[in-house]
Amino acid sequence: MTPSLSIEESRPLAAEFFKKIGLLTGGGDCPGLNAAIRAVVRRAHQLGIGVFAVYEGFKGLVEGNVAPFPLRQASGILHVGGTILRSSRFNPFKSKENLQALRQEVKKRGLQGLVVIGGEGSLRLACDLTRKKIVRCIGIPKTIDNDVYGTDVTIGFQTAVNTATEAVDKLHTTAESHNVVMVVEVMGRHTGWIAASAGLAGGADLILMPEKRLNEESIRRIILNRHARGKKFSIVVVAEDARVVNNRGRVVVSMPTSRDDYGPIKSSGVGEGVARLIRRLTGFETRVVVLGHVQRGGSPTPEDRILATRFGVLAAELAAKNKWNRMTAIRNGKILSVPLNTVTGRIKKVDPGLYRLANYFFG
Amino acid sequence: MTPSLSIEESRPLAAEFFKKIGLLTGGGDCPGLNAAIRAVVRRAHQLGIGVFAVYEGFKGLVEGNVAPFPLRQASGILHVGGTILRSSRFNPFKSKENLQALRQEVKKRGLQGLVVIGGEGSLRLACDLTRKKIVRCIGIPKTIDNDVYGTDVTIGFQTAVNTATEAVDKLHTTAESHNVVMVVEVMGRHTGWIAASAGLAGGADLILMPEKRLNEESIRRIILNRHARGKKFSIVVVAEDARVVNNRGRVVVSMPTSRDDYGPIKSSGVGEGVARLIRRLTGFETRVVVLGHVQRGGSPTPEDRILATRFGVLAAELAAKNKWNRMTAIRNGKILSVPLNTVTGRIKKVDPGLYRLANYFFG
Amino acid sequence: MTPSLSIEESRPLAAEFFKKIGLLTGGGDCPGLNAAIRAVVRRAHQLGIGVFAVYEGFKGLVEGNVAPFPLRQASGILHVGGTILRSSRFNPFKSKENLQALRQEVKKRGLQGLVVIGGEGSLRLACDLTRKKIVRCIGIPKTIDNDVYGTDVTIGFQTAVNTATEAVDKLHTTAESHNVVMVVEVMGRHTGWIAASAGLAGGADLILMPEKRLNEESIRRIILNRHARGKKFSIVVVAEDARVVNNRGRVVVSMPTSRDDYGPIKSSGVGEGVARLIRRLTGFETRVVVLGHVQRGGSPTPEDRILATRFGVLAAELAAKNKWNRMTAIRNGKILSVPLNTVTGRIKKVDPGLYRLANYFFG
Amino acid sequence: MTPSLSIEESRPLAAEFFKKIGLLTGGGDCPGLNAAIRAVVRRAHQLGIGVFAVYEGFKGLVEGNVAPFPLRQASGILHVGGTILRSSRFNPFKSKENLQALRQEVKKRGLQGLVVIGGEGSLRLACDLTRKKIVRCIGIPKTIDNDVYGTDVTIGFQTAVNTATEAVDKLHTTAESHNVVMVVEVMGRHTGWIAASAGLAGGADLILMPEKRLNEESIRRIILNRHARGKKFSIVVVAEDARVVNNRGRVVVSMPTSRDDYGPIKSSGVGEGVARLIRRLTGFETRVVVLGHVQRGGSPTPEDRILATRFGVLAAELAAKNKWNRMTAIRNGKILSVPLNTVTGRIKKVDPGLYRLANYFFG
User: Fold this and answer.
1) D72 CB contacts (<8 Å, ≥6 apart)?
2) Active-site positions of B?
3) Cβ atoms within 10 A of the Cβ of B289, count?
4) pLDDT tens digits along B140-163
């Protein structure tokens, strides 16, 4: 029987949990994960659901790195960045042994389901685990990239925009004091959400992002027009996966892959290519800043804390009602849930209206 | 003829303005006003509309404190708090002479309309000026209180929540180090928007706001329960207009009016009353902090900058299309406009769902 | 034998502690306490000294709220405000029983001495305990008020100045947008250190503090002169214990004591008095903001973290060398120690040069 | 005759300036320049000295980009980063024509001297101009690198440390959530001031800087020891000019020069080399973040504002007293001036005590 969701009735249930779930965070960390963890644990407790902490993502489930999550450990973490559950990029489907170990751990702990806080990759794993009847999952979308399909906003995005905008603000005075073109490379593996938002909020004079390939001539014209109007500096915000094409449509700037024997290390990327290009096109002095991992850190903004809290509360309520295979989402300002399988395998691109808006302020 | 709104076509028009509008900010200041001003001026310029700066709100229109607003003055203000147009609380309807002076100024400058950035009071004046055919207005809603009807969010609100949440974060460590009940009074003349949001984001153990009258017994129980669970400190967030009732429903704490010969000066308010009450009810040590005007200041958050930019762009486009008597709004995540006369004379109360959400984390 | 202080030699000692000390924080909390705690514990550990955590100040020593402080608990707290040892205002000399209990706890735990992190009050207790041979102490000075004698700076002061300056920055835009005189009351029980520093850093047009009694006429003249120069707003920073005299030298504004049956609650104070006075003297509109406990909170600035770390390291080294009855200090940029008994019973007033500097920017 | 420095007597003089000076900012920008500019202009005005704004450093003096600096333009800039006078890296000694033009501009404007706010390069030019009797100068030291000899602190340093420490704080949660070694490259062309200070304040587990060449073995040991103690993540702060040597003393990591046809563009630097090295030495996963120009920006901290104000006031007073060829300085907490020629041609290295302090917290 589905428990009543009213707080008054549910509390008595807490003494003896009628249901147990696991809770994990997968993929890259971002601000707001702990806020979501706190919300899942507190609301679950009120609803009579016992929560088990699964450490280091799906890896923890395979390795048996699992422990009961006492209520008091969910205290004092709302404002803290990172994830107290730690995280990993680990795919249990890569080996039969792992999958078997995961299955046994779920059984051993008596978990009726999992709440998976993750980006597109982790949510796909959650979906597959549910579909293959290994363990039923509920997903909570998080990523500073904001590219998860099916929800307008993901946990972590707004804080990352905040961090990037503060950096753009700081770079403004240097650009202005020295008459340079300042190129700021922000994160965004497949989409330009941070670039478009922080660019708009930071008053960028040009924004480059994957969704909108600009050619050299447009870039040259925008920067030179600005110069002609007496503005001797510019701020250019570039998503890490942006591309620039020449007048024949050939890509002239993209993100070079950088590897050594120990795997990929982020190196000179698209930002530097854009800086060189603008220098060649306009003759102006350029500087480049790559914000990098700083965008993943920091205390979550109030918006992120509230979003994470809403998602966490809803996930616990879905688990209480046995509504598995769902992802929490915010759509048109409403909190709701969508089928997990409808959101995986695709990404959410930047709203053209947002880019058009930014475009009004270019040059 | 209505101009095309595409940026490419509209620019040639800018050389000779086919239309002139006035732009003013009324009522209390808040973060994001300059971002809205910049957006109105830049987009209007692209659409061939000349903008006149009206200084110090409606007073400037009566006193002829009006001047052309050159494009370059809208530069470099996106991130700056306050309003470069300054503001005032001034009602031109209070005297016939004033109204006549206003009418003449509008005529003299050849203004086809006004863009009024204001809260409920200024928007009502804008509505009355339109209705009485004195000058046609478009409204842009702003107030840290977020109580303007017809829009889900107003300019300034999110930055105020940010400021209040940061303060709550700071007070947490003191409360915890000293085992005290810390009462934080935030702004909110008629509604508890800041209290509910900053309380939720700051992890408040109790939130008091006008929309939800709590009685002494509930308050006592929440604080004592928390103590019983081993938590020896509490954070209580109180909206300035909250009320507490006793068990017979009589109001025991409200905001005392404070005046001297020179008019009202904000003094000891509801926060102090709540602190005394909790002390009496529980015997615990209490402290009170009144955040006050700090909540109106600071650089707007990215969210506020983007919202203000969207509202400003839309207001300029409405003016270009002669769509007067409208207010820009955001509803369910969409930017749109609503009739000005449908939003005045009422206030928007806190969504019960938001308060219920906070309630899950009380005690 | 005194251990060598070089890190290489000292580490082997750590395995078996040759000495044990207690560590406590007393009085009001402030940012940087945890940074000092971490430094004492880590350096003591390297020097072969075992540290016992004493909770809630001297009260913990009386009540036996004492436990070994493992090294790993000193991890991850450098940037966190408040004190993980909690604090209290407790005087063990008020009862013979308490003093006896304290003596027994020290004996029972085998503590050779105490490190007391505190303000003037706690340092005096530390001095008395040493002098009366109850337990030998080393003091580390902390207080946002910066009024401890014998050191140029105390832990917490610089972060409080940072917080107060940020608030003054935020209030600037409101003052300017509305043409008001904004009065900001900052902490400073006996001295104007925060007022002078945050006033200077925030560009205050007038600063009032205990060390410098201004008369009404000077205040009136400064504000009116400014107005005459076309500046229609002013920022006035006031220390909570400032006084204003009239032309005959009689005090006309001071801090009213505010009490109820449950003891003192901070209420309308000197800030409000100054706002009323300026209104009466000039006729200008005024607003008042009382920053309050927010000044005690937040993550310590780098300066405070480094100062606290230096003090903590030195305190551990003094304990290792049996140099008791000393207080760590910074004088003319050098870290050193001074006899504890030479610093108690007096306060350090604001350097007149600092006030004169601020004075150049008044009006 | 030297004017009296008391504010009361000096004001009457302001009406007709008895002396004229130029004011410029040279080299890279940093937070606090505007605070210094404001202080020079306001104090000079009180002392009866007229100030001319020289734009874009020494270049402005050669090109005649010079204008009277009205008092009101020094208003509202105290908290703003960058420099309203703009800056350049320009050496007038490189051509006889330039030097002649500079000489003529000084004569034409009737400037008795210059106040030069700059780093080591600009201060050397100021010294040479004085020595060769072209124009007498007073220097104010500024650089985020803090490497100017003769002063304990330069303008901009403390804000840069603040920015770098905030970044280290943000990276902590990511490092911890993912068990990685996070390498943070901070600025510091010849010295490790930012690295040592932000590393200490941010709780770095290892700091690499030019003043202290570590060998591979020490680095390996520190990281592995930490791991052995159960800490699975590390923060390594690296100055951009740090070097690592192998066990035979050969440099294995240094800053690679990076150029294209349009000149040097900052690319993969020492941070990346260190990340690769640690990976090779320990097998742990590493990440690298290069903070870059963000460190030059932002609103100055209160400390920087007060330091800049003190330096600016003293520079104006030195000019009033005809004390040329001096640089303002802070030594052992005291504000004073030193002969300009004693500070150029050398750099100030990191205090070994500061590094030793940080060392206590390594691993």
Assistant:
1) C230
2) 145
3) 25
4) 999 999 999 999 999 999 999 999
* Chain C residue nearest residue D201, CA to CA: C302
Chain C residues whose CB is inside 8 A of the D152 CB are 333
Beta bridge pairs of residue B339: B326
What CATH superfamily is the domain B158-296?
Answer: Phosphofructokinase domain (3.40.50.460)
Cβ <8 Å between D165 and C42: no
Residues for chain B: how many in total? 363
Distances (CA, A) of A37 to A32, A310, A311: 9, 11, 10
Chain C residue closest in CA terms to B29? C174
Query: pTM value?
Result: 0.94
What radius of gyration, in Å, describes the C-alpha atoms of chain B? 23
> Does D5 have pLDDT greater than 60?
no
Question: Same fold for the domain at B7-155+300-342 and the one at B158-296?
Answer: yes
> Looking at beta carbons, which residues of chain D come within 8 Å of C305?
165, 200-201
**Contact with chain B for residue A43, Cβ under 8 A:** yes
* φ, ψ of residue A82 in degrees (nearest 5): 70, -165
- Helix (H) / strand (E) element for A7: namely helix A7-13
Chain A residues inside the 8 Å CB shell of B303: 158, 303
Whether the predicted pLDDT of B336 surpasses 70 = yes
Where does residue C353 rank: exposed (0-12), middle (13-18), buried (19+ CB within 10 A)? exposed
What are the extents of the domains in chain B?
Answer: 7-155+300-342, 158-296
| DSSP category for residue B156 | T
The chain C residue lying nearest B271, using CA atoms, is: C267
Among residues of chain A, what percentage have pLDDT more than 70? Answer: 92
Interface of B with A in 284-343 (CB under 8 A): 299, 301-303, 305-306, 309-310, 313, 331-334
Across chain B, mean pLDDT equals: 92
The DSSP 8-state label assigned to residue D238 in this structure reads E
- Amino acid identity of C342? T
**Cβ(C151)–Cβ(C339) under 8 Å?**
no
Q: Which residues contact A224 (CB under 8 A, 6 or more apart)?
A: A282
CATH number of A160-296: 3.40.50.460
* CA-atom Rg of chain D in angstroms: 23
Complex ipTM, two decimals? 0.93
Per-residue pLDDT of chain C (363 residues; tens, 9 = 90+): 333 333 333 444 344 678 999 999 999 999 999 999 999 999 999 999 999 999 999 999 999 999 999 999 999 999 999 999 999 999 999 999 999 999 999 999 999 999 999 999 999 999 999 999 999 999 999 999 999 999 999 999 999 999 999 999 999 999 999 999 999 999 998 999 999 999 999 999 999 999 999 999 999 999 999 999 899 999 999 999 999 999 898 988 887 645 444 444 444 689 999 999 999 999 999 999 999 999 999 999 999 999 999 999 999 999 999 999 999 999 999 999 999 999 999 999 999 999 999 999 998
What digits encode the pLDDT tens for the residues D72-119? 999 999 999 999 999 999 999 999 999 999 999 999 999 999 999 999
- Site of tokens 């009579």: A48
Place domain C159-296 in its CATH homologous superfamily. Phosphofructokinase domain (3.40.50.460)
For residue range A80-128, list pLDDT tens digits in order: 999 999 999 999 999 999 999 999 999 999 999 999 999 999 999 999 9
- The candidate with the shortest Cα–Cα distance to B163, out of B305, B31, B295, is B295
User: What are the angstrom distances between the C-alpha of B116 and each of B56, B70, B340, C80, C178?
Assistant: 12, 18, 11, 44, 17
Nearest to D302 among C161, C306, C331 (CB): C161
Contact residues, chain D, for C309 at CB < 8 Å: 200, 357, 361
CATH topology of domain A7-155+300-342: Rossmann fold (3.40.50)
Q: How close is the nearest chain D Cα to the Cα of C57, in Å?
A: 26
